[in-house]
Amino acid sequence: MSQHHHHDHDHSHHDHSQAGRAFRWSIVLNSGLTALQLVIGFGFGSLALIGDAVHNLGDVIGLVLGWGAERLSLKPPRGRFTYGYGRSTQIVSLINALLICSAGTVVVVEAIQRLVHPVPLIAGPVAWAAAAGIVINLLSARLFGHNHHHDLNQRAAVLHLLTDAAVSVAVLVSALVVGLTGWFWLDAITAIGVGAAVIWSAVDLLREAIALNLDATPRHINLAEVKQLLTALPGVESVEALHIWGLSTSRTALTAHLVVDVSCFESSAQHPQQLIQQAQSALAGVGIRKSTLQLETSHHHCGESR
Ligand SMILES: [Zn+2]
Question: How far is the CA of 201 from the centre of ligand 1 (A)?
């Protein structure tokens, strides 16, 4: 498996290993952070910190899934699994989104109960753990932001990490105020905010996971743009039975019928097979590298109507 991977991707090995390193470090740092925040949150009574930990746990699972998706999509298809194994990450991300949603709900419900019956907390360690959250998220943002400024996914990841740092800032400020004033209810209020943020982002993950499991076109592909791209090819009158779906989070497949005007091919020197190659390279340009195209003939005369 590992050998196969290296053999296939020698040409982009440098790029690959750099991104892989950022991934691995993010997973290690965020796992450590999650564990620290859970221990201190439970040990010293801060629900806000536990909420932050739940969110970070979701991030760790998300990172592992992203890493797993990349590895699984490289695994060759075998036996009945003619599509390979990339889709397994979509099933797991659905389960992950459901788990994080429930965990966020538990935090909010518990926080409402604590609002009625405040639980004392020891602010010092909570503040330190929140500070660790700020440092680690900023460090991760730097780690990712270093490689590709232009990559949209990477930019989304950096934005996410900065938002996470802001959540940790809220927990830190709340812990400091509780330490100074003894307002234990403030921790519950902060926990409600953090829990709501956790649910909000998990619902977004859930919607995307359901969409991908229903073979929806991945978000980064513009369906109308692809249709236009194919229709614009010489000799193509229309596009029918267009399907675009994800084989894994990083691989996209397409099938379509191209309705072509045969008389156009008769008058020009172009061969139908050339059209398919042209279409496939145009599709590769928008990130669709696995396309199956079928030509259908129309009964118009070349250029008669479109
Ligand atoms: Zn996050």
Answer: 8
Is residue 150 scored above 80 in pLDDT? Answer: no
Q: Cα(236)–Cα(295) distance, rounded to whole angstroms?
A: 9
pLDDT in tens, 60-97: 887 787 777 767 777 888 999 888 887 877 787 788 88
- Residue 115 alpha carbon to ligand 1 centre in Å: 25
Compute, in angstroms, the gap from residue 56 CA to the centroid of ligand 1: 6
**What is the whole-number distance in angstroms between the Cα of residue 170 and the centre of ligand 1?**
14
Q: Report the pLDDT value the prediction gives residue 300, as an integer from 0 to 100.
A: 62
Sequence-distant (≥ 6) Cβ neighbours of residue 36 within 8 angstroms: 129, 132
CA of 161 to the centre of ligand 1 (A): 6
pLDDT score, position 132: 92
All structural domains of the chain, each given as residue ranges with its CATH number in brackets, are 2-213 (1.20.1510), 223-297 (3.30.70.1350)
Overall size of the chain counted in residues: 306
Alpha-carbon gap, residue 11 to 13, rounded angstroms: 6
